[in-house]
Write a structure and sequence with these properties.
The complex is a heterodimer of chains A (about 260) and B (about 400). Chain A is an all-alpha fold and about 260 residues long. In chain A, about 75% of the residues lie in helices and about 0% in strands. Chain A has a domain of about 170 residues: MetI-like fold (Orthogonal Bundle), CATH 1.10.3720. Chain B is α+β, with helices and mostly antiparallel strands and about 400 residues long. Chain B contains 8 helices and 20 strands. The N and C termini of chain B lie far apart (about 55 Å). Classes of the chains: A mainly alpha (about 260), B alpha+beta (about 400). Chains A and B meet through helix 7 and helix 8 of A and strand 6 and helix 2 of B.
Chain lengths: ~260, ~400
């Protein structure tokens, strides 16, 4: 029997819808023409110019510093929160859960505004530190939710087995609990990292002079009309993303083997 | 005399539920001891208190003269085999077995030698580098045993270790467990709800119900001389009859009246007095069933009834015989070629007889225990709703 071709066409259309804009972007990044309307010939000009854009590299550095530090702190705090949520039961735990969960659904613009008002009330100088704190606040929730999901189907008799075999609580946690939760914690960390890197709305509110992050930088470049440079930058980010995706898939494949 | 392992008046409650209620237990060195009971009877809680995962509300746990009640699990010389095996999924078989010695920071060479010895004991040398997810249930079981035994525990705790295996594998592991017990010679405390496992492995069994110990004894003692109706019904099958002591014939035997029965002679080891209401329990295989009236005698009881249900099982046949208000379960072993006789079948009028020594009298009795007794399957035989007319013998 001949199989229907409709699923194939649908799949192609969906993929086209996803990736056509990106393809246009990649092609345009090699376009010598400044206005992207027509093909002005192949060129690496925009990439060369990109290298000289010190402000971009500065913004990228800011973004990475914040992403790494915010991820590190939110993984520690988020994992602890997940443990606290899982381990203890009580009437306040439901409130605790709701409080941890809420930042996931609160609109970014509200988060950004309230954080800004909060920092102003404290008369804190807006800087990298304020962005870092803002990012930690919402990353904690994501990490906590991912780790909690992992904990909920975790068989704690394995930890008991470790203790039974002579390990004290810390040894059991270090040699058994942590390695087994590592995939969950890793997933939480990756999520936090990506969210931090491309956060625009919240960062926009709490960024101060000299603490521009990459998304904010890109936004202002569009405003000041240098799209070809952004194309080139986007392609670079794309390449990095694909490498990361490939890497994480490689990791999970090895887990399965 | 104090035993090797003592539970001294242990009580443990979870909320308002008394999981373990004033339990005292003494286990000898090298013994294969089983805690047997239905789920929720407190047997696992008792085991977890010995392992150190639960603290008793009251009472002490004493191992080899030392009070270990307040010692954390990692410093107790006991090891557990968990129902789910609880192997470490991120470590291979060798590393799983080595875990205890590694944590104890023993020298690497010594660890390797010990692990090799254990791998040989459980015959898993060729699987040493595999992760637990790649080995079968029976192999996981053996790894769990090796991982526990390598620490040379004073007592090995087994929490329903065979529950997750299929029947054939369970029978094989049963034999292997017995061999391992003989070989290592340490004390085993085995928790199970399966009377077959407990009976075939144990030196002694404690039958538990509702957080209390109903009876402690060898498998034969528990089967042949149950102290309570729960034990009688939980271990094997039995029939209960309500009666009254009518006369003490001599020091050993009494005459009983049971409603609808001719008077019955029963062994009276509990020294029940005339007039006492008792419950008589008789195992199905202790009965003889025949068409002709059997040879009577002072110590043989007989009643007449009608067969209501028959299940032929090859080696034996199960009959359910109606005698007045009682439906008596009878197991008949076929020691002779069955087809030469005319087999007993539905609606046959039969004689059911038993020796006075084969009944036992119980004074404590709970109606719920009757639910543990195996009843005949429904919808078998012609018109099960009809009351058969039992003639007075």
């Amino acid at each position: 029997m001949k199989r229907s071709r409709i699923p194939l066409y649908t799949t192609c259309l969906v993929l086209l819808f996803f990736y056509l804009p990106i393809a246009v972007l990649v092609i345009n990044s090699f376009n010598a023409s400044k206005f992207g309307g027509g093909w002005g010939g192949f060129s690496l000009r925009w990439y060369r110019e990109l290298i000289d854009q010190r402000e971009i590299w500065h913004a990228l550095r800011n973004t990475l510093v914040i992403a790494f530090s915010a991820t590190a702190l939110s993984v520690v705090l988020g994992t602890s929160a997940a443990f606290a949520l899982h381990r203890f039961t009580g009437r306040l735990q439901r409130l605790h859960y709701t409080l941890i969960y809420t930042p996931l659904v609160v609109p970014d613009i509200l988060m950004g505004m309230s954080l800004l008002l909060f920092f102003v009330a404290l008369s804190a100088q807006l800087s990298l530190l304020t962005i870092f704190l803002a990012h930690v606040t919402f990353c904690i929730s994501y990490v906590a939710m991912v780790v909690l999901a992992r904990l909920q189907d975790f068989d704690f008799s394995i930890v008991e087995a470790a203790q039974d075999l002579g390990a004290n609580w810390w040894t059991a946690a270090w040699r058994v609990l942590l390695p087994m939760l590592a995939p969950g914690i890793g997933a939480g960390a990756l999520l936090a990292f990506t969210l931090s890197i491309d956060d625009f709305v919240i960062s926009f509110f709490v960024a101060g002079p000299g603490s521009t992050t990459l998304p904010i930088r890109i936004y202002s470049m569009i405003k000041h009309g240098s799209p070809p440079l952004i194309n080139a930058l986007s392609v670079l980010l794309l390449v990095i993303t694909f490498v990361l995706v490939w890497f994480s898939q490689k990791l999970t494949e090895e887990k399965i083997k | 005399m104090a035993g090797f392992l003592e539970f001294d008046d242990i009580t443990k409650a979870f909320g308002s539920l008394r999981a373990v209620d004033c339990v005292s237990l003494s286990i000898r060195k090298g013994e294969f001891f089983s805690l047997l009971g239905p789920s929720g009877c407190g047997k696992t809680t008792l085991l977890r208190m010995l392992a150190g995962f639960e603290q008793p509300d009251k009472g002490r746990v004493i191992l080899d003269g030392q009070d270990i009640t307040d010692i954390p699990p990692n410093r107790r010389k006991v090891n557990t085999i968990f129902q789910s095996y609880a192997l470490f999924p991120h470590l291979n078989v060798r590393e799983n077995i080595a875990f205890g010695l590694r944590v104890a920071k023993r020298p690497r060479k010594e660890v390797d030698a010990e692990v090799d010895r254990m791998l040989a004991l459980i015959q898993m040398e060729e699987h040493a580098e595999k992760k637990p997810s790649l080995i079968s249930g029976g192999q996981k079981q053996r790894v769990a045993i090796a991982r526990a035994l390598i620490n040379k525990p004073r007592v090995l705790l087994l929490d329903e270790p065979l529950a997750a295996l299929d029947l054939k594998l369970r029978q094989r592991m049963l034999i292997e467990l017995d061999l391992i017990h003989d070989e290592v010679g340490i004390t085993f405390l085995y928790v199970t709800h399966d009377q077959g496992e407990a009976m075939s492995l144990s030196d002694r069994i404690a039958v538990m119900n509702n957080g209390r110990i109903e009876q402690i004894g060898t498998p034969a003692e528990i089967y042949e001389m149950p102290r309570s109706s729960f034990v009688a019904a939980f271990i094997g099958d039995t029939n209960f009859f309500e009666g009254q002591v009518a006369e003490l014939i001599d020091t050993e035997y009494s005459r009983l009246t049971i409603d609808g029965f001719p008077d019955v002679v029963c062994f009276n080891d509990r020294k029940m007095n005339t007039g006492n209401l008792v419950y008589v329990s008789i195992r199905p295989e202790k009965f003889r069933i025949s068409r002709e009236q059997p040879q009577g005698g002072g110590r043989v009881n007989q009643v007449r009834g009608v067969v209501e249900d028959v299940i032929y099982l090859g080696a034996q046949t199960k009959y359910w015989v109606r005698v007045q208000q009682y439906l008596i379960a009878v197991n008949q072993q076929h020691s002779r070629f069955l087809l030469d006789q005319k087999p007993i079948t539905w609606k046959d009028e039969v004689w059911v007889s038993w020796f006075a020594d084969d009944g036992f009298m119980l004074d404590r009795y709970s109606e719920t225990d009757e639910q543990l007794i195996q009843l005949p399957p429904e919808e078998v035989g012609d018109d099960p709703g009809q009351e058969p007319q039992a003639d007075e013998a």
